Amino acid sequence: MANDPSLSLEDFCDALYDDDRLIGIDLGTKTIGLALTDSGRQIASPLETIKRKKFTQDVERLLDLCHEHGVYGLVIGLPLNMDGTEGPRCQATRAFVRNLAQKTEIPITYWDERLSTAAVTRTLIEADRSRARRAELVDKMAATYILQGFLDRVNYGGTSLFDEE
Fold it and tell me: Is the pTM of this model over 0.90?
């Protein structure tokens, strides 16, 4: 896509050093769910949910967390339609990334987030979480689901795209 600052999966992995941590992002209209990898980039864990205010404030909080946790890569959920096409939510996500890229040099890539919120919500219901508790957890858990899916893909079968030369 023209003017899209995101990197392909392979270029993103090539841009990172061995101990660079990643943040996964579930970008919503009211909140931004965040997840963080361990230093070995094997496990994603929920980090925080940012209540959206203004773009500048949201990005300042995100970049503060990147600095605090030694994060050098961002994996942003791309909300594709079920048939793989892009709708208005994808356009909004891509616009967010274009604006974010003007504020940081941190590499950014997308990850297909179809059904992430539905899967997390189903898991929270099965765990008998109250509606209020689910609302509190769902965004950062969806970010964790997105980031873990990414990690599972790049670390598949004992080989890692991170290690390729």
Answer: no
